[in-house]
Amino acid sequence: MNVSETIGLDVNKVRDSFPILHQQINGKPLVYFDNAATSQKPSRVIQKLVEYYEGYNANIHRGIHTLAEKATRAYEGSRESARQFLGAQSTEEIIFTRGVTESINLVASTYGRKFLNKGDEVIISGLEHHSNIVPWQIVCEEKGAKLIVIPVTDTGEIDLSKYKSLLSDKTRIVATNHASNSLGTINPVSEIIKLAHERGSMVLVDGAQAAAHLPINVVELDADFYCISSHKMYGPTGVGVLYGKKKLLEAMPPYMGGGEMIKDVTFEKTTYNNLPYKFEAGTPNIADVIAFGEAIAFINEIGKANIAQHENELLEYAHRKLKEIEGVRLIGTAKNKVSVVSFVIDGVHPFDIGQMLDARGIAVRTGHHCTQPLMDRFGIEGTVRASFAVYNTKAEIDSLAEGVKRIVNFLSK
Amino acid sequence: MKSIKEIQEEIVNEFSLLDGDQEMTVLYIMELGQKLDEMPDRDRTEENIVKGCQSKVWLTARLDGDKVLFAADSNTAITKGLVSLLLRIFSGQTPDTILSAEVDFMHKIGMERFIGTQRSNGFAAMMKQIKRYALAFKTQIEVGQ
Questions:
Q1: A147 has which bridge partners?
Q2: What is the ipTM of this complex?
Q3: Is A404 near chain B, with CB under 8 Å?
Q4: Element of type H or E holding A376
Q5: Which residues in B lie closer than 8 A to residue A355 (C-beta atoms)?
Q6: Is A351 within 8 Å of chain B by CB?
Q7: Among A134-148, A380-394, B31-45, whose mean pLDDT is lowest?
């Protein structure tokens, strides 16, 4: 990322566009640091939902009336926005899903079922969210394939040399996240993909934690599948994208059957619709998809370079402030991280820290963050995780540090 | 020995002094936990874990004459504090009193507001376990007579 391209960010102006941020929690101004779970939504995204329901709610695609046409145009407009956002070549490669979890399940259940055979191997990283573990476990069990895990280093990074040694002619699928939800580690996906392709394996990238923070270009990455969730990128819940290379999507059987995904149906035989509709059975989540387009526009207008610069400053500041507190141990100290800080304090349960911070109006997440194997790797039950977005400030990090200090002092007395 | 009703009233009064200040409430609850008698390591076993709690809670009970004495511990400070409130109410009462007790102090101190639904379930699990112990001891006493 070229820092000279950044034009700076007026964080107060950004904050003004998020209505939810201007409230008190337990008598204190809300500090929202649970962005890796879901980010807040700017007014323009919320407004888009209202506009749709008040102005042109209609079922899309086959309607001939004006409202249906308007809704279809808006819906397909979001698909084009998502295509540009990911750098994909065609909107045929952009499948709307409910989110990353559904996107991964779709690939595991269709590509996995069709192309995995007994003795084949699926490689995942040790940093994965349960949603990028369990779907592969299910299909591996069904097909007699083997699930292999790339070990994680003490800094919370994928061990690349181990990865190389795990790749073999038996490898059919490699699944990894672009950035870790628990630790923030940015994985070298470009290299992971290149190495997998050399062995003839396809690669799925879970981009849930990367989408709102890092530049993404699926063609440059040469990713076979790339998954994102709207709600982690200032958009509504219940929408995600599965990007897939056209030739792979064409070779895959459908995931769900129903309306939208068919060309012709008789009781004897059904022919399936073209891409991307083949994978979009039923009435889709029209309103949220349309508002997701607005969320992409929001990110584009601020600019990923500006977002990254701002968030990196917050990340460094948070690391520094937390390290000053006695007993704080950061989990995940990779050089390249998105704006996620995970930490533990010896002798203090993450839950207590979370409660204490909530009493001060600060929202963090505590627990295993749906990455139990990763917590096991570090020999801990869970962490306290603060994750930052474009609207967060250093003053908020000061509040976080103060809250943590308060509980440490209290419990150590 | 104060009645279960009286102890609950006492707790409600103490919490009302905190005036709804969440931070003070959290700290107060943790302080109560710190004052709880230490549970011996040998009792922190898998069998003594109360199922249904989000954090780990160990609960043991023994009969002393006609009174049930409880001991408990938790791996989180806040839960330990909340558990200590239950022990204060029930430890030293007879099985019959425990079984017929109506517990309503949690609503009065607005506990649900700051412990969340999952923990409220854990609290219900604790209550159930306490009553289960009381029932077992009641049977034991009756059989012994």
A1: A122
A2: 0.88
A3: no
A4: helix A372-377
A5: 26, 78, 114
A6: yes
A7: B31-45
Residue A2 confidence (pLDDT):
41
Task: State residue A158 phi and psi, 5-degree precision.
Answer: -65, 135
Burial class (CB in 10 A: 0-12, 13-18, 19+), B142: exposed
Class of domain A46-300: alpha beta
Q: Which CATH number fits domain B4-144: 3.40.50.2300, 3.90.1010.10, 3.40.50.280, 3.40.30.10?
A: 3.90.1010.10
CA geometry: angle A286, A59, A229, nearest 5 deg: 15
pLDDT tens per residue across span B71-89: 999 999 988 999 999 999 9
Domain borders along chain A are 3-41+303-412, 46-300
Residues on chain A touching B76 (C-beta within 8 angstroms): 349, 351-352
Nearest CA distance, B75 vs chain A (angstrom):
7
Classify domain A3-41+303-412 at the CATH superfamily level. Answer: Aspartate Aminotransferase, domain 1 (3.90.1150.10)
* pLDDT, tens only, A341-356: 999 998 899 999 999 9
Give the helix/strand (H/E) hosting A374. helix A372-377
Q: Say yes or no for a CB contact (<8 Å) between B55 and A351.
A: yes
Phi, psi of A406 (to 5 degrees): -60, -45
* Residue in B25, B27, B76 closest to A410 by CB: B27
Chain A residues touching B114 at Cβ < 8 A: 355, 358-359
Instruction: Report whether pLDDT(A189) > 90.
Output: yes
Tell me how close the Cα of B36 comes to any Cα of chain A, in angstroms.
Answer: 14
Tokens linked to A109: 């259940």
Asked if the model's pLDDT at residue A1 lies above 50, the reply is: no
Give the pLDDT band (50/70/90) at residue A379. Answer: very high
How distant is the Cα of B100 from the closest Cα of chain A, in angstroms? 33
CA atoms within 13 A on the CB side of A222: 13
* Residue B117 or A57, more confident: A57
A347: left (phi over 0), alpha (psi -120 to 50) or beta: left
Where do the domains of chain B lie? 4-144
**Calculated CA dihedral for residues A297, A299, A302, A303, nearest 10 degrees:** -110
